[in-house]
Backbone:
């Protein structure tokens, strides 16, 4: 058999990766997954501590999702939503609307979190034009925001390391701090006539290092956006499908638009959706000029939608969110034990989203920690000097305990101080 490490290094350009480092080190090649475990091509077992980049929900090789995809394969793998409908996308759309925050009535499919955000931004922009508010063209975003890597989503991003370089390519947006609602109010008061929408990651800014929103900010933002006729977009790409302990982090504030992706298929296949209110949808009804001219080739892909239906059915059948409550508390207790370690600056937790901020600015330290964790059978990924834990919701208490223990052993091993 070919040496996969060599093949990978010869041909693949990895995302968010300095390839110089990648090429010089030996890399892990994942061959299979089962439950919360990943296995490399040498047969070594690892806990999937970040749900394969925040997507795996009920575990790998979950019987019901495997079967749903196989069943759909026997019917059709892909048919377009441009000019045609298909069975799984229609069934899924109804299910999504049933569990979505109140007021959301329509589903626009795409393939990734970034495209779901692009779509939300374009819908909000066009909506304002369609209702005659031609000057409402700008967006408000939060400091440290992350909404994806396409040009529109980077334009509403606020992480300098990722976004600064591209500034000449981007449209300008207004940035507000998340810890000062007054600044948002002042901005809206002064500029609302120029603002189409505000976009937020509800309750937790994940890629910024699991920064948790101050209490009340989201509710106040909701009220202010309504007052000033600004669309509120909640980007649930990271937080959606149970990660915060609720199905959606924005479920009690009725956003005008939400973006979902990642966990929608249980972590199986690429799929995303942008959900809007009937009011927004209705503004696009009319002659050809009112059409939303946007669509991706694999929009509403039947295999992905079949996986997503099975994923949502498991939430119901296994009572996933109810069972999660005790796991979240257990995780909190376990994390608490380590909060006073001298290696730790802060531990932030919202549901099953955890950021462990290291008490050091040393470059590359996060990577040293995750390499220590690998030696101990855990796969995690850092965001700078923040170690992220985001295990599959299906993890057991015993496995959770092991994940936390190994994570802190790895931190201590990498930071002998
Ligand atoms: C809040 C949020 N929005 C959007 C995205 C982009 O999603 P994708 O990587 O699927 O394009 C991410 C990815 O981490 C995210 O966390």
Residues:
């Amino acid at each position: 058999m070919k040496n996969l490490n060599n093949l990978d290094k010869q041909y693949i350009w990895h995302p968010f990766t300095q390839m110089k480092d990648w090429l010089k080190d030996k890399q892990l090649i994942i061959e299979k997954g089962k439950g919360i475990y990943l296995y490399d091509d040498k047969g070594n077992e690892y806990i999937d501590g970040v749900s394969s980049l925040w997507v795996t929900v009920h575990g790998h090789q979950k019987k019901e999702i495997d079967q749903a995809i196989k069943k759909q394969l026997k019917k059709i793998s892909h048919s377009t939503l441009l000019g045609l409908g298909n069975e799984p996308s229609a069934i899924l759309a109804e299910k999504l609307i049933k569990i979505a925050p109140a007021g959301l009535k329509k589903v626009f499919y795409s393939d990734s979190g970034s495209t779901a955000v692009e779509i939300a931004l374009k819908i909000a922009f066009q909506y304002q034009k369609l209702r005659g508010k031609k000057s409402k063209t700008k967006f408000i975003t939060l400091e440290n925001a992350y909404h994806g890597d396409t040009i529109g989503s980077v334009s509403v991003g606020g992480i300098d390391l990722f976004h600064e370089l591209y500034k000449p390519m981007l449209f300008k947006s207004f940035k507000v701090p998340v810890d000062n609602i007054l600044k948002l109010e002042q901005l809206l008061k002064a500029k609302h006539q120029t603002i189409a929408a505000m976009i937020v990651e509800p309750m937790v800014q994940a890629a910024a290092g699991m920064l948790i929103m101050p209490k009340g900010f989201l509710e106040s933002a909701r009220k202010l956006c309504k007052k000033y006729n600004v669309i509120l977009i909640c980007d649930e790409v990271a937080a959606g499908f149970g990660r915060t302990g609720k199905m959606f982090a924005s479920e009690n504030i009725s956003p005008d638009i939400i973006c979902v992706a990642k966990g929608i298929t249980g972590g199986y296949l690429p799929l995303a959706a942008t959900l809007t209110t009937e009011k927004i949808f209705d503004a696009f009804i009319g002659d050809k000029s009112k059409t939303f001219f946007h669509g991706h080739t694999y929009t509403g892909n039947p295999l992905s939608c079949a996986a997503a239906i099975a994923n949502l059915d498991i939430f119901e059948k296994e009572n996933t969110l109810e069972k999660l409550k005790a796991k979240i508390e257990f995780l909190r207790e376990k994390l608490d034990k380590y909060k006073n370690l001298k290696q730790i600056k802060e531990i932030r937790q919202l549901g099953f989203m955890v950021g462990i901020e290291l008490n050091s600015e040393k470059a590359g330290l996060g990577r040293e920690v995750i390499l220590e964790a690998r030696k101990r059978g855990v796969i995690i990924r850092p965001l700078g000097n923040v170690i992220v834990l985001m295990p599959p919701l299906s993890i057991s208490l015993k496995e959770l305990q092991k994940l936390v223990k190994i994570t802190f052993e790895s931190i201590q091993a990498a930071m002998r101080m």
Residues 65-317 form a domain with the Aspartate Aminotransferase; domain 2 fold (CATH 3.40.640.10). The chain is about 40% helix and 20% strand. The first strand starts at residue 30 and ends at 34. The radius of gyration is 22 Å.
